[in-house]
Amino acid sequence: MLIKPVLLWSDALILLLLASVGLLVWLARNNDTFRAPWRQVMRSRMGSSTALILSVYIGIGLLDSLHYVERLPTPAGQPASQPAQYSGEVLSALDALLKPLRENVEKTYSAPFATHLYAKETVLGPNGRETRDYPRLQHGGAHLADPERDFWADVSERAGLGLLGGWVVWLLWRSWFGCRNGCQNSGARFGLPGGACSATGPPRRNFTLLVILLTIGALLALAPHYHVLGTDKVGQDVLYLSLKSIRTGLLIGSLTTLIMLPFALTLGIAAGYFGGRIDDAIQYLYTTLNSIPGVLLIAAAVLVVQVQIETHAELFETAAARSDVRLLALCAILGVTGWTGLARLLRAEALKLRELEFVQAARAFGVTDARILLRHLLPNVMHLVLITVVIDFSGLVLAEAVLSYVGVGVDPGMISFGNMINGARLELAREPVVWWQLAAAFVFMFVLVLAANLFADQVRDALDPKSKERA
Amino acid sequence: MLNYLLRRVLYAIPILLGVNLLTFALFFMVNTPDDMARIHLGAKHVTAEAIERWKSEHGYDKPLFFNTAAAGAEKVSDTLFVEKSLKLFVFDFGASDDGRDIAREIGQRMWPSLAIALPTFIVGLLAYVSFALLLVFFRGTALDTGGVILCVALMSISGLFYVIGGQYLMGKLWHWFPISGYQPGLDAWKFMVMPVLVSLIGGIGDSSRFYRALFLEEIGKDYVRTARAKGLSDLRVLFRHVLGNAMIPILTGVVVVIPRLFMGSLIIESFFGIPGLGSYTIDAIQAQDFAIVRSMVFLGSLLYIIGLMLTDISYTWADPRVRLE
Questions:
Q1: CA pair distance A164, A157, nearest whole angstrom
Q2: Which of A47, A91, B24, B66 sits CB 3.0–4.6 Å from A458 for a disulfide?
Q3: In this complex, do A291 and B19 lie within 8 Å of one another by their Cβ atoms?
Q4: B30: contact with A, CB 8 A cutoff
Q5: What whole-number distance in Å separates Cα of residue A459 and Cα of residue A382?
């Protein structure tokens, strides 16, 4: 075998998360009260297009979660039966797909689409004389014989081809899934984005999909030959860094929720339902946690984790495993400190539900507390949980950048939006300004967070009975 | 009312004790003082002796909760928990790991923090509420829709972008203000404008949207229809009735942060080089100075609890029906 799959802890948790979401959807597939709000989200133009953008991000994140290590070539002269040696560098499926981007490393900064390096170097002229000049890049635009003359023609040719490809794929998609005369198609039935069209409305052109496909097409055509978003200080391609950062952001947003939910659900509902001493104890717990300034509590816990990781360095085989554990620790800390808001909401809701007839009736019939909690209370607070989860997601993605800047975020060696910003923020003082790394991180983050925010709004409108009254 | 406040003060004690126990557990039990010494000494100088010396220099060479070597009451009092944790209750913060008196630093550094945080808070509250009222006044029109879209876009941008962008535009490109730094006295305003402006823009999306939702909820109620039917003008209804009735939820979110203004903002202060408590904290985090972090955690919790009490008091002022018993 040339590669050996590696399951990092975070990968395992992502799989667990996917499996549980899948199971939940499968269990509720025939439940109309469950499906109706989601269908409403997907029918709305905003809901379906933001869901599409989010799924592109999630797709990239998932590709980046399939990790493996490559087998090192057996040294010559040794018998092939020796135990295989594997490289210490953990790669992912995304790395394999982006191989040209990952390996086209320049010496230092270069601007987007540049053919020459950002910094001057001593180069050997054609006549053997040494001059100070901007050297050609080793990879970006290296196929051009004369950059000055060929650059625009080459870029526009490649970009045109890429855009054309994206457009063709879009047309194919439309003829495949798009329906003409308002028929109910399979895409809409399952609430899939893209194929969405209602039984009454006119067939919809999915422009978000078109924009995404055009972008992918153009990038596919251009990225192997140019540094579309430039390179960073050590010459890595910024597009590659941005794409790799997506997984970190998504992980922080989703795993934190996964860790937070059990706390918030059990403690919040228990406090509201049982009342009395239990309520007092749980209220004391969350007032205490809440009273500590959030960043400080996170910083304190991360500092402790950092010390533990440093003192037990021998536990981690690879650098990737170490930064992975630190990322998980960060998620755990954010989760353990972040459950209070949702718990308070759930407590108030459980307090209300406890007095309603159906709960009283269940109690009069002698149904046990555990059963009442599971069958009667939990389904009735699920909308609050879902709304909180989608609303918190975008905040967590933004928080990662800030925490990494403070120095209590992800491992400094891990590729993340926060570390990208942190590494580039001082470079605005240079002349000419090195703006591309900052801009790339901010734009990638902005699109993700904006889509998540808009999607969250749609979900809240669909699930929250209160906001429906208002609208 | 006095009775109520007294009860709240008594209730604050177990909470602060809980906070102390939590930080104590994090910094002394999960992380032993030995770990701390190792970090501060660096990998090169770690010997058993050096660790012991560092610990006794910084007062970490005591047992956690129970001192078997001491006599009488000292068995309990001459311990790390009492020395490092309980003494915070009488504002005895002790010395930081580099030997400075933390209480004095806090006393000096809270003023620059306040100089940035207070204007940000006041101007911000006014700006956010007025913007939200403006959107509600034009509800259902293109202005409202545009404003909401703007808010969502603004809140989707990373806060770091506003800081970096603001510094670049206002500081480097247009030369309006110095990029960072601080100076006490009358010249301070030059250094204050940009941080305040940047934090204002950074907060407008989130807050205005929140207030808009509050006002919209109020405006659908019956008393608003009654007020309109009496012939009150739109503006009067909005300012006197809607704003007045939305006061309780506004106060809930706002009053609680007032005492914490002393502590400043970590990000703003460290980016703009303000020598306040926020940058003090961030430096401590980056230098892994646990003594300072512990003091700031305690201070933050104390100020939060004071904020909660102020919130309750402010309810009686905003809504005469509320009585604190």
A1: 11
A2: A47
A3: yes
A4: yes
A5: 12
Judging contacts by C-beta atoms under 8 Å, the chain A residues touching residue B301 are 288, 291-293
Q: Considering only residues 181 to 200 of chain B, which have any Cβ-Cβ distance to chain A shorter than 8 Å? A: none
pLDDT in tens, A396-419: 999 998 888 888 888 888 899 999
Cα separation, A463 vs B2, whole angstroms: 44
- The type of residue at A185 is N
pLDDT of residue A467: 59
Dihedral over Cα of A10, A12, A18, A24: its sign: negative
- Nearest CA-CA partner of A209 in A53, A62, A44, A47: A53
Q: Please report the ipTM that was assigned to this predicted complex.
A: 0.86
B302: its two tokens? 């104390």
Q: Mark yes or no for CB contact A406/B158 under 8 Å.
A: no
Tokens matching residue A199: 């039984």
State the alpha helices, DSSP H only, in A31-120.
32-43, 45-63, 93-97, 99-103
Instruction: Express each pLDDT in B208-232 by its tens digit.
Output: 999 999 999 888 889 999 998 999 9
| Rounded CA separation A403/A299 (Å) | 8
> How far is it, in rounded angstroms, from Cα B310 to Cα B322?
14
Q: Is B65 exposed, middle or buried (0-12, 13-18, 19+ CB in 10 A)?
A: middle
Are the C-beta atoms of A402 and A468 separated by less than 8 Å?
no
Q: pLDDT, tens digit, for every residue of B80-113?
A: 777 777 778 877 788 887 778 888 989 989 999 9
**Between the CA atoms of A205, A207, A213 and A219, what dihedral angle is there, to the nearest 10 degrees?**
160
Greatest CA span in chain B, whole angstroms?
Answer: 84
Give residue A468's pLDDT: 52
C-alpha distances out from residue A123 to A47, A61, A132, A136, B175, Å: 54, 41, 6, 10, 37
Which of A114, A456, A104 lies closest to A257 in space, CA to CA? Answer: A456
Distance in angstroms (rounded) separating the CA atoms of residues B300 and B259: 9
Residue A138, token pair as written in the block? 């080793």
Alpha carbon distance B183, B181 (integer Å): 7
Asked if residues A94 and A67 have their Cβ atoms less than 8 Å apart, the reply is no
And the tokens for A376? 């009667």
Tokens of A56: 């592109």
Torsion of CA A240, A167, A172, A444, to 10 degrees: 30
**The model scores a pTM over 0.80:** yes
